[in-house]
Write a structure and sequence with these properties.
heterodimer; A: 112 residues; mainly beta; seven-stranded mixed β-sheet; four-stranded antiparallel β-sheet; 0% helix; B: 108 residues; six-stranded mixed β-sheet; globular
Chain lengths: 112, 108
């Protein structure tokens, strides 16, 4: 099993550009989530999904969209990048919320 | 009020020392509790789940106190390889909440 994979590993965007961060898991997990990690802030939940076709907002959803058309994939879209979105983004999955999450290796995003 | 509060440290301890981390959570309805380890510039990885009866895994012991709403992690006989940031994680409903992490450096 590859576990949770994320692409790209690094990305530089200009303000106003849009892009999609990819996340995929091959463990047939129902629950998937996106976090951003900033210095001194810990991981903060952006969006999550409890199964295909179902998504919901986390703590910091503004400026991001998600969709969950399959169990395996959970892409995160930045609609119009802003410098405040410079961060490290982690995708995670788990069988459900009572179990631990497995994290992808992260995407380091810089918005200039 | 933050969902999860954690002392950021840093903790600098000599090899062989015992060190304890605590974490408090605000929602009494929280259901699942975990400790994760994160190495510099890497993804968090599960260290151990935390159960009401307490649980041990080698040199690591985790405790949960639901009445006082805190979880703890005890590391005995610290090794250089234990140097990392330790994150407490609490699940409430469909969301996981992370503490800001406690930095541990084990000194030779």
């Amino acid at each position: 099993n590859a576990g949770v994979t994320q692409t790209p590993k690094f990305q530089v965007l200009k303000t106003g550009q849009s892009m999609t961060l990819q996340c995929a898991q091959d463990m047939n997990h129902e629950y998937m989530s996106w976090y951003r990690q900033d210095p001194g802030m810990g991981l903060r939940l952006i969006h999550y999904s409890v199964g295909a076709g179902i998504t919901d907002q986390g703590e910091v959803p503004n400026g991001y969209n998600v969709s969950r058309s399959t169990t395996e994939d959970f892409p995160l879209r930045l609609l119009s990048a802003a410098p405040s979105q410079t961060s490290v983004y982690f995708c995670a999955s788990s069988p459900d919320t009572t179990y631990e999450q497995y994290f992808g290796p992260g995407t380091r995003l810089t918005v200039t | 009020r933050k969902e999860v509060e954690q002392d950021p440290g840093p903790f600098n301890v000599p090899e062989g020392a015992t060190v304890a981390f605590n974490c408090t959570y605000s929602n009494s309805a929280s259901q699942s509790f975990f400790w994760y380890r994160q190495d510099c510039r890497k993804e968090p990885k599960l260290l151990m789940s935390v159960y009401s009866s307490g649980n041990e895994d080698g040199r690591f012991t985790a405790q949960l106190n639901r009445a006082s709403q805190y979880i703890s992690l005890l590391i005995r006989d610290s090794k250089l390889s234990d140097s990392a940031t330790y994150l407490c994680v609490v699940n409430t409903g469909n969301q996981f909440y992370f503490g800001t992490g406690t930095s541990l450096t084990v000194i030779p």
